Design the sequence.
């Protein structure tokens, strides 16, 4: 249960001021146990934007996330409203009834401090780290497929009267700074010589110049940028990559929805799918003499397939069971002879989500190699030649997805193509 929003004057928290703040929250205090002086407080944020603290007491622990008034990765010279914390909280509240334990429990939101006190996930680690380490998570792909199906279906026009979605749109329409970041950093900067970009140089210089001169590629990316802004299908997480998922072998949690807004469902699908592909291409960089990672790459592709198939199956099942919204009104398809038409319309819609997943996924792959924010999957590869080979494979795949979508009719077509695009190091 989320407690009612509290409000304190804004100040940037540190370990000591946080201790004082928590000491005044009875419920959280009880959860931690002991006296405030006994609590261990440390800042663990590894993200691009915010402060994240872990507070441990003798009985339990909590996680506290505070939005800064600037982009952490860039510093105070890149200001950004801390309002995103409000929207992160609003997103969790909106999807909580549908996604159950796939998100952390929220204990407290302080509207003035832009600060959320939530369940500390432990011994969970960030999925991206697990993928780099070559670990397998048996439930992951199914859990995230189910998550996206439920979160997106139940915030779409398929589930509820449109008035409900429009209320949500009105609220999330104010979460503009993250949308600005996405528009600039994903759909624009990577495709021209923006000063915020970087890439593995000089190894990729030629390829990067070629991509930036590829008109059809830029037109495809721009078309997905337009879709991002104009296809208001559901409340989306907005940043659902492998750094926004925490895992144990048995448990999966989605975190960090501060980029939430009403947009295309394929944007969340593509974030997860595209980052699985990035992980696949990065694996040669993490191979050891005892483990060439080939079996692990096969596992990753299998997860990409399970993710999509779970999403597709669950989304269609939810539509059959709970399709009470204003889109595809039940009254139009009440007769038995209407079933076939409805069935094929539903299939066509999920097919369009597959195409969107691939396009958005490809844009997300490209931005992580040519743009501002890279991924540790590649950055951790010290040998720059090897890193560049891995990145070149991912770029080739993403480019084909964007410029030759007609080659990909099923997720199987994509997974067959992935190994063909790899450069042999
Ligand atoms: P940012 O928006 O700045 O990227 P995140 O929400 O991704 O912040 O959190 C940054 C890091 O803090 C995560 O990568 C993870 O290591 C840690 N973290 C975040 N939320 C939790 C949590 N509920 N429990 C434990 N660790 C967490
Ligand atoms: Mg974030």
Sequence:
């Amino acid at each position: 249960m989320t407690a009612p929003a509290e409000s304190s004057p804004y100040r940037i928290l540190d370990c000591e001021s946080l201790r004082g703040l928590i000491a005044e929250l009875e419920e959280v205090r009880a959860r931690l146990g002991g006296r405030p002086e006994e609590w261990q407080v440390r800042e663990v944020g590894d993200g691009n934007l915010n402060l994240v603290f872990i507070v441990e007491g003798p009985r339990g622990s909590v996680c506290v996330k505070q939005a800064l008034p600037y982009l952490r990765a860039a510093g105070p010279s890149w200001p950004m409203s801390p309002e995103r914390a409000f929207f992160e909280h609003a997103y969790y509240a909106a999807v909580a009834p549908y996604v159950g334990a796939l998100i952390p429990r929220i204990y407290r939101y302080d509207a003035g401090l832009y600060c959320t006190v939530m369940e500390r996930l432990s011994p969970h680690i960030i999925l991206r780290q697990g993928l780099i380490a070559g670990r397998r998570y048996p439930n992951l792909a199914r859990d995230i497929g189910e998550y996206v199906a439920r979160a997106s279906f139940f915030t779409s026009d398929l589930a509820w009267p449109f008035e409900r979605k429009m209320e949500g749109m009105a609220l999330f329409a104010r979460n503009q700074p993250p949308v600005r970041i996405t528009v600039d950093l994903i759909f624009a900067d990577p495709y021209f010589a923006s000063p915020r970009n970087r890439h593995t140089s000089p190894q990729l210089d030629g390829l990067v110049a070629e991509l930036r001169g590829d008109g059809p590629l830029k037109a495809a990316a721009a078309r997905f940028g337009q879709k991002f802004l104009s296809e208001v299908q559901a409340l989306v997480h907005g940043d659902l990559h492998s750094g926004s998922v925490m895992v144990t072998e048995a448990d999966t949690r989605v975190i960090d929805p501060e980029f939430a807004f009403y947009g295309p469902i394929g944007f969340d699908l593509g974030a997860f799918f595209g980052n699985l592909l990035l992980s696949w291409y990065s694996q040669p960089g993490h191979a050891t003499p005892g483990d060439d990672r080939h079996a692990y790459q096969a596992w990753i592709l299998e997860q990409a397939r399970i993710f999509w198939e779970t999403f597709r199956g669950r989304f269609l099942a939810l539509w059959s069971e709970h399709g009470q919204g204003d889109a595809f009104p039940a009254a139009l398809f009440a007769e038995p002879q209407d079933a076939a038409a409805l069935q094929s319309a539903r299939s066509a819609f999920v097919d369009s989500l597959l195409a969107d997943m691939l396009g958005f996924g490809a844009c997300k792959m490209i931005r992580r190699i040519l743009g501002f924010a890279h991924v540790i999957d590649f950055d951790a590869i010290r040998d720059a030649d090897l890193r560049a080979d891995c990145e070149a494979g991912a770029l080739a795949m993403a480019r084909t997805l964007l410029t030759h979508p007609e080659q990909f009719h099923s997720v199987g077509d994509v997974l067959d193509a992935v190994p063909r695009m790899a450069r042999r190091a």
